[in-house]
Amino acid sequence: MLPAQRQEMILRRIEAEGSVSNAELADAFNVTHETIRKDLEALAEAKRVIRIHGGATRASDSRHDLPLPARQSVNQFEKSIVAQAAAALVGTNDTIFMDASSTVLAMCDNLPSVPLTVLTNAHHVIVALGGRPGYDLICTGGNYEERSRSYVGAVAEDSLKRYMIKWLFVGVDGLHHEIGASEVNPGQAVLKERLIPRAEQICVVCDSSKLEKKSPFIFAQPRQLNVLVTDDRAAPGLLEPYRQQGIRVITAPLDRV
């Protein structure tokens, strides 16, 4: 196979999957890692992909989140139904963490009217839940990101060291049964990664369009996840690999009135 032919096939794979690793491509095309490195360098030089550590991602992928209003407008109905199902997991006196994802933000309207401690790095979660009777709201503070309207960095990470979390609710830019949960925003990814050891239950909350996708920054391996809440548009075969790894899968019906 000529390098140009292989590079076009690599490009199609990246467009389909979001990102790929050097090792995956070397295995798929039965060539050396050095050959793949040269292919990706050629594609990056042509501005057709973006090189990341150990692989490449789509040239169109942003290294930062889309602005929150833009994220909220994507698959809005699916997110609302998934958020309802995730909120039903929360119990009286639970301590939960809600990240800055648009799907987790949609949970705010569905959380139970019981005493809760809510930790978050998301400004809009505090605004949405402010004034709720029985809610103890704790915001991390830290470096404010306007696009995500949330806080990241060392201050945000350090502020949560003393808490044990019952439910860690996280959104993703990609979830893959082999790679795990990933983000386009490195600050958000690091914060989530640091919280995982402090959580009893790690719950990924995402609509089915995020499944089997990969983004540049991995924050959780599949074995670290406990629950996946998604919508029932996901094909059963797509969800089975998660169940086989011991992840509880909840599919929210999109025909819910």
TrEMBL record:
Matches recorded under InterPro entries: Carb_Metab_HTH_regulators, DeoR-like_C, DeoR_HTH, NagB/RpiA_transferase-like, Tscrpt_reg_HTH_DeoR_CS, WH-like_DNA-bd_sf, WH_DNA-bd_sf
Keywords, ordered alphabetically: DNA-binding, Transcription, Transcription regulation
Residue ranges annotated for the HTH deoR-type domain, each copy included: 3-58
One GO MF term attached to the UniProt entry: DNA-binding transcription factor activity
Keyword Transcription regulation set for record: yes
SUPFAM superfamilies documented for this protein: NagB/RpiA/CoA transferase-like, Winged helix' DNA-binding domain
Protein name per UniProt: DeoR/GlpR transcriptional regulator
